[in-house]
Design brief:
320 residues, alpha+beta, Glutaredoxin, Glutathione S-transferase Yfyf (Class Pi), Chain A, domain 2, 2 domains, four-stranded mixed sheet, two-stranded antiparallel sheet, 8 helices, 12 strands, 36% helix, 12% strand, binds glutathione
């Protein structure tokens, strides 16, 4: 995908490769925070913030999951973008999308980045959180957007669990580090490395990490104990995509999640939480990745399988 250079779209990819073909992305640059505190630049408010996401993207999926878990549907609006053949990065499915807070009609997500910052140089990524009041991108880093959704909009929605409770923060942070390196990034490493050695490294790390998670989930219902936390929901988008997409498309083909008893039951446990299945469009994820504009070249052919019934019973209630 291209990027914005001094406010103009360029087709050159900014994704950098280093360390002998290992695929590494540049960090997100929009890092402001929406706060519950009404005094401040970005106070939480109903209808003010807009989330831009893409069904195919696991990072964006985290934020869509948190929007559902925290019951923010009527507080933060959700807009979907997709990749288009010969497009300019993330594209609105309908021509002439109105940018909230403005009368501008746009076709590409990058156009909203330059409304707030006409000279910006940046990747244009999903998720993106937009503020219709200041007409700026607030943040485009999923790990931060989910924290805002977890705690900063509390007064505006019905009560929901806290997924980052103070007493578990150290454990959640450590688990997040472990899964970020060994699953979230290792899958991309398998799919996008440009040397055999870099692929091998990601592949071994990925399956060592999945094996370790299988062990952990043999002892506890969720990654950090008896209650769901942010750590579970940061991992979930990669687990739900693993068998239908990553196994084949990203060459992560030592074992499937279905081959891991604890991981597959755990995945079903999370999938069956009310409101989650509705935001898991697995066929849409496959279209976004294998389709004509997606990152995996497959002549635009979408694999039909596998057929996995995530609604069949799981055994996780054995942990109470
Ligand atoms: N660290 C970012 C990464 C997001 C990301 O890489 N999103 C991908 C889609 S899965 C994207 O928009 N890529 C476009 C690009 O890198 O130019 C986050 O977690 O929000």
């Amino acid at each position: 995908m291209g990027h914005l250079l001094n406010g103009a779209w360029t087709d050159t990819d900014t994704l950098v490769e280093n360390r002998d073909g290992m695929y590494v992305k540049k960090p997100s640059i929009f890092r402001d925070w929406v706060r519950a505190d009404p005094v401040g630049e970005f106070p939480a408010a109903r209808g003010r913030y807009h989330l831009y996401a893409a069904v195919s993207c696991p990072w964006a999926h985290r934020t869509v999951l948190f929007r559902a878990l925290k019951k923010l549907d009527s507080v933060v609006a959700l807009h979907q973008v997709e990749q288009a053949v010969a497009g300019q990065g993330w594209t609105f499915p309908e021509e002439g999308q109105v940018v909230p807070g403005t009368d501008r009609h746009v076709k590409y997500l990058h156009e909203i980045y330059t409304i707030g910052d006409p000279d910006v140089t940046t990747r244009v990524t999903v998720p993106t959180l937009w503020d219709a009041r200041t007409r700026r991108v607030v943040n485009n880093e999923s790990s931060e957007i989910i924290r805002m959704f977890n705690s900063e909009f509390t007064g505006l929605a019905e009560p929901t669990p806290d997924y980052y409770p103070v007493e578990l923060r150290a454990e959640i942070d450590a688990m997040n580090e472990f899964t970020l390196r060994g699953v979230n990034n290792a899958i991309n490493g398998c799919g996008r490395s440009s040397t055999q050695a870099a692929y091998n490294e990601s592949f071994h790390l990925l399956f060592q990490t999945l094996d370790a998670l299988e062990e952990i989930l043999g002892q506890r219902r969720y990654l950090c104990g008896p209650r769901q936390t942010e750590a579970d929901w940061r991992l979930f988008p990669n687990l739900i995509r693993f068998d239908p997409i990553s196994y084949q498309g990203y060459k992560c083909n030592l074992r499937r999640i279905e081959d891991y008893p604890n991981l597959s039951n755990y995945l079903r446990d999370l999938y069956q939480i009310p409101g989650i299945a509705e935001v898991c469009d697995i066929e849409g994820m496959k279209r976004g990745v294998f389709g004509p504009a997606g990152p995996i070249k497959s002549n635009g052919i979408i694999p039909l399988g596998p057929w996995i019934d995530h609604r069949r019973p799981h055994d996780r209630a054995r942990f109470g």
